[in-house]
Amino acid sequence: MKLHPAQAQIAQDKHRYRVLVCGRRFGKSMLCTEEIKGRALHDRMRRIETLPIPQDEKDKIRTMHSLDEYQCRVDYFAPTLEDSRDLVWGTLKKELSPIMVSEPNETRLEIITHNKDGGKSLIRLRSWEKVDNFRGRNTDLVIFDEFRKYKNFWLNWQEVIIPAMSDYLAEGLFLTTPQGYNHVYDFYNLEQEHDEYKSFHFTSYDNPYLSRSELEKRKEELPEDRFAQEYMADFRKTQGLVYPEFDRDKHITAAQPSQVTKIMAGIDWGYTNPASVHRIREDADRHYWIDCEFYKTQQTSDQIIEYAKTLLPELVYPDPAEPDRIAMAHKAGLNVRDVSKDIEAGIDTVRELLKQGRLHIHPDCLNLIVEFETYRYPDKKPDSNEKEKPIKENDHCMDEIRYVLHNQTPQEQETQDPYFETFNTHYRD
Fold first, then answer.
1. What's the angle, vertex CA 20, arms to CA 17 and CA 25, rounded to 5?
2. What is the C-alpha to C-alpha distance for residues 150 and 175, in angstroms, rounded to an integer?
């Protein structure tokens, strides 16, 4: 297969992490296939020897390499396993058939090939839904296709992917059409801070094989924002956001409050799903400053509680659906408080704080920022007047900070806590 000029520009780039944001039908799948083929044809040490690292580090990698069954490993991720199968599996089997060691594994979606240096390469197709299965693995190249759809991206990038890429200093290729200002937007802009990253932006018009008249029809038929996002690869706000008032320029700051009057923390429990904890400080003007993000999976109740204690909160607002864990937090010395279960009223409280400019979020709270920009309502049903509740996705931080913020009213502060007969009058409004 021959790459068109824009695809070739990406393929020839030598940065460790390449990030492609492109319009529909640009040719992502073809580019992925060519990247996989090109890497699988060679022994990893060819690449390692070209890296600007000390010779003793290369020698250590060579020692690991000599013990590895495979001389190159390539991993391809898509949102689901069916996506992986649909997007590249058939083409890979056809293109790699002349150098296959054995028949492809249709169940595991694995292909083993010979390479030009006398060794073997392993190609594995994976699902982001099962990204946790990648823990403890190693790789030489990871391709992340349609990564706008990856849930809990930052968490799994830091906890699962980066360790797997460390042994052989693996490279990453990230490809997607944008969808709002989410993790893709932040990842795309990493090239401004780190020289290992290179970002590319191409529209559907950059594929010379696409019909221009067809693209013009889509332009006429679709709403302007939808065409700009899907075909021009522009970052636009997602439709149906719960908090359209959230504005990075207005609400994200590394500044600190000048006078703290109260320190609080919220807790959204989790284990398989991420647990979320933040410190929330109130100042004398009743502005709220959020920082110290904790957002992790596979954390026990004790671990979550111990982190919350390090924040030295005077008040703690935990998920009310976990009474056993709340009791543990109380026993551990946290001043746990009642939490309102009124989601709609809580959303209105947070929305008003955003509108009034009274909510300040530290830039290190990556997952909180992503959730603000992706937490949304379901698409409206025609002729339906039913009350809308947000989709239960990208909501761990959203729930947790709402527990805290919605309860900062004079009426709530007079309410008795289930574990305390009196409440310190110093914090009353």
1. 150
2. 12
How many residues are given for the chain? 429
For domain 5-230, which CATH number applies: 3.40.50.300, 3.30.460.10, 3.30.43.10, 1.10.443.10? 3.40.50.300
pTM to 2 decimal places: 0.77
Q: How many CB atoms lie within 10 A of CB 102?
A: 9
Query: What topology does CATH give the domain 248-427?
Result: Nucleotidyltransferase; domain 5 (3.30.420)
| Token code pair at residue 280 | 């929330």
Residues of the chain with CATH 3.40.50.300: 5-230
pLDDT tens for 243-297 read 999 999 999 999 999 999 999 999 999 998 999 999 999 999 999 999 999 999 9
User: Between the CA of residue 96 and those of 3, 74, 111, 120, 305, what are the distances in Å?
Assistant: 17, 13, 9, 13, 51
Of the pLDDT bands very low, low, confident and very high (cuts 50, 70, 90), residue 68 is very high
Q: What is the mean pLDDT of residues 319-346?
A: 93
CA distances (Å), 316 to each of 50, 285, 400, 403, 408, in order? Answer: 53, 21, 10, 9, 12
CA proximity to 107, closest of 91, 85, 130: 85
What burial class does residue 33 get, using C-beta atoms within 10 Å of its C-beta: 0-12 exposed, 13-18 middle, 19+ buried? buried
User: How many other C-beta atoms are found inside a 10 Å radius of the C-beta of residue 83?
Assistant: 18
b vs e for 189-204, b when ≥16 Cβ sit within 10 Å of the residue's Cβ?
eebeeeeebbbbbbbb
Indicate if the pLDDT at residue 420 is higher than 80. Answer: no
What pLDDT score does 400 carry?
96
* Of residues 81 and 385, more confidently modeled: 81
